[in-house]
Amino acid sequence: MAFFLTSTIYSLSLSLILAAAASASASAATNRPFSHHYVQTKPTPTAKKMTRLHFYFHDIVSGKNPTAMKITGPKNAFGTTVIIDDPLTKDTKPGSTVVGRAQGLYALASQHDSSLLMAINFVFTYGKYNGSALSVMGRNNVLDAVRELPIVGGSGAFRFARGYALTNTVRYNLKTGDAVVQYNVTVMHA
Ligand SMILES: *[C@@H]1O[C@H](CO)[C@@H](O)[C@H](O)[C@H]1NC(C)=O
Ligand SMILES: *[C@@H]1O[C@H](CO)[C@@H](O)[C@H](O)[C@H]1NC(C)=O
Question: What is the value of pTM for the model shown?
């Protein structure tokens, strides 16, 4: 009984201390600013060139030869995950010159809007960037007129790549789900 009492008192005082600590850290946290700005002192010495790329991304989910396939999750709802090997072309027409492919996956990662998580490599097969690739990792709210996606890296001519892609949907077929999306990429690289 005595042991029970002491251990109850001990656990009561412990929880009081923990509660006090929690409220102290909560008030410290509320006083902390959301962001800090630090002035950059040196530019990245490895990113010397800037390149702009323009192409169209064809997300083909219908027909006999889809280039985008749902791998898990419900249909067009939170959790839908699609793996792609989509052609990238010079022009809006699907039959126009292929400049590369978008390989990777996108997933509906929002419960509140139509935002995708994009984890994709643009693998180029055309001109001076044949064999080079850019990696995209970002959020893409497909219902926004213009979206911005970070370019987080690259290989080949695009070593040390960093940049962004501005993208807008050119065509979306409500019946089939096929889409053509324009990409304007700006990238700094070695
Ligand atoms: C791209 O490079 C590959 C491998 O080096 C080569 O086979 C192909 O012909 C090249 N394509 C173009 C369009 O230059
Ligand atoms: C991409 O560039 C084209 C041509 O300059 C322009 O018409 C289009 O609005 C741009 N799209 C985005 C999303 O920046």
Answer: 0.81
